Amino acid sequence: MSSNNLKGASLALVAMGIFATHDVVVKTLGSTFTAFQIVFFAALLSFPLVAVILLNDRREGHLRPVHTWWVLLRTACTVITGVTAFYAFSVLPLAQTYAILFASPLLITILAIPILGETVRLRRWAAVVFGLVGVMIVLRPGQADLGLGHLAAMTAAICGALAGVIVRKIGSEERAVVLLIYPMMANFLAMGAILPFVYVPMQITDFGLMGVIAVFGLTASFLSILAYRAGEAVIVAPMQYSQILWATGYGWYLFNERVDVPTIIGAGVIIASGLYIVFREGSLDVSENTPVLRTRGRSETVTTPRSSLLQRSLNLKGRPHR
């Protein structure tokens, strides 16, 4: 491995560790507050930080979308992803939540066919089917009690994948500031409308933890940018799966969670299929759009904006994907 790829992989590992810590704070707050309240205050505290980034985009233009319906659909998907992911982290074991969310690259591969016109041949289809079998192993329908948390995690994976593919479709024609600010404002307005019905009084320490979520999410996103600038995407992207190790450790140490055998097996199957898709997309003449590689790991939420959009807003150049 070259020194640049080693640096990129190392930065990505640090970013994933911070993301996992971010999710631990979400889970901690989720024992007292609803996902709606957490997302609202996370959006509120993230806005000043993101506003500074958006002010850096001095290119002439307006905030009207070029592709209005695609932008609105992506905005709705991002809002849903944030609420459902935060809820899943609150009620499910961390490792199980990650295992389900790791289905996102499989879903991106499927959604890229109708939306991007991507051609998926037999080997990648086999990987997708193999990975979805892994999801079924984790969920164990008929053998384990499935609740709203499992549904929320799957919804987050689906909506996060759809939002990522939409960015891939319209991102070259839409201003990054448009794609960043619409989901943030939608989160703030939608959660603000729901907040009076679910509000629980907060202590100063709770506000502090909300701020930690905002800072950690943006910090990890910036480290992801630096990782992709330093190394090749095919090397950096697989580092997202290191979150399962953080989740297992945090879950055991902080929440007395034990990872059962089906979750371990299912997560292994999902990760193996995701890695195959990543490396397959990185091969020449296999994928025209490289949708999984260009989605860059984490699903977008109010506290974790899409790294590629932040990179564009900051006028930073990344390494080519191939």
The overall strand count is: 0
| Morphology call | globular
- Give the averaged pLDDT, no decimals: 86
Strand content: under 5%
Please give the alpha-carbon distance between the first and last residues.
15 Å
Low-confidence stretches: none
Structural class determined from secondary elements: mainly alpha
Question: Number of helical segments?
Answer: 14
Q: Percent of residues in helical segments?
A: over 70%
Secondary-structure element series: HHHHHHHHHHHHHH
In the residues, how many domains can be counted? 1
Rg from Cα: 19 Å
Strand count, sense and closure of the main sheet?
Answer: none
In brief:
The protein is 73% helix and 0% strand. It is an all-alpha fold and 322 residues long. It is globular.
What does this entry look like structurally?
With 322 residues, the chain is mainly α. It has one domain (3-313). Helix content is 73%, strand content 0%. The protein is built from 14 helices and no strands. The longest helix is centred in the N-terminal third of the chain and has 28 residues, at 3-30. The radius of gyration is 19 Å and the shape is globular. 54% of the residues are buried.
Keywords:
single chain; 322 residues; mainly alpha; 14 helices
Strands, helices and their partners?
Layout: H1 3-30, H2 35-55, H3 68-91, H4 94-101, H5 104-116, H6 122-139, H7 148-170, H8 176-198, H9 204-230, H10 233-236, H11 243-255, H12 261-281, H13 291-295, H14 307-313
